[in-house]
């Protein structure tokens, strides 16, 4: 269970915006270093820490990871991005950054849409 007090819908929207603005492009300061999806953005609960200050099981993204990958070093890289079962881990191995960002963006849009629909349904039903 996530122990992250950030709003998941806003978090996913910010991640999508980050990707759309080129956030995972190589840094001019460290062009040799590839950026890691989610870990190198504000989506990660450990972003900005030189070590993992929080265990990954406190992160909202773990809710999208199948239980068999909860113990992985980077569990969010095992989120199934589509019906084909592609994950960030799979796509990083192919070293096709444009494809990775496109697939993650598609997944983000779908999850944002799902969450917005859930919120609308709850609002119509009078649920908090």
How does the SSE layout of this entry go?
Blueprint: H1 8-20, H2 88-93, H3 97-125
Helix pairs in contact: 1-3
How would you describe this structure to a colleague?
The protein is mainly α and 128 residues long. It has one domain (8-125). 38% of the residues lie in helices and 0% in strands. It is built from three helices and no strands. α1 packs antiparallel against α3. The two termini are 20 Å apart. The mean pLDDT is 87.
Q: Which word captures the global form?
A: globular
Helix content: 25-40%
Number of strands: 0
Question: Strand percentage, roughly?
Answer: under 5%
Query: How can the largest sheet be summarized?
Result: none
Count of DSSP-assigned helices: 3
Which residue ranges are poorly predicted, with pLDDT under 50 across at least 5 consecutive positions? none
Task: Give a brief description.
By secondary structure, the protein is an all-alpha fold. It has one domain (8-125). The protein has helices at 8-20, 88-93, 97-125.
